[in-house]
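So, does this match?
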Amino acid sequence: MNRAIIDTDILSYYLKGDQVVLKNIENYLDHYEVLEISIITYYEITSGLLAKKAFKQLNVFEEFIAENIITPLSEKSAKISAELYSALRQSGSIIDDIDLLIAGIAIENDLTLVTNNQKHFQRIPGLKIENWKK
C-alpha cells in the first residue's frame, strides 16, 4: 500500500461520516499513522466552511488537521503542475488549476491521490489514483 494524499471530495465524505470512506481510511491507518492532505485541499475546505459560516464544522476540521499532515505546494510541485497544464492544454483536455496543483503535489511526493473524481484525474499522466468511495 502506497502512501496517499486525500483529495477534497474524499475528505468531505470523511468529515460527513460516510461509512465506505471511513472504512477505507481505517484500513489505511492500519498501515500509516496519519492522513495527508494538500495545502490546496486545506484551502478548499477552509474557504468553503468560512463562506457558509460553518464554524462548528471548521473547528472539527481544525482538530482533524492538528492530528494529520498538510503537504505544501513547493516550487517543484508547481513546475510539475505547469508541465501537466501545458500537456493537457495542447491535447485539448484542460483540468482546473486547483486540481493540477493537487496532482503536482501528489506526483512530487510519490503519493497516490485518493479521489472520487477518477474520470477527471485519470487524464493526468504519472498520477496514481484510488477511489475510497467505492
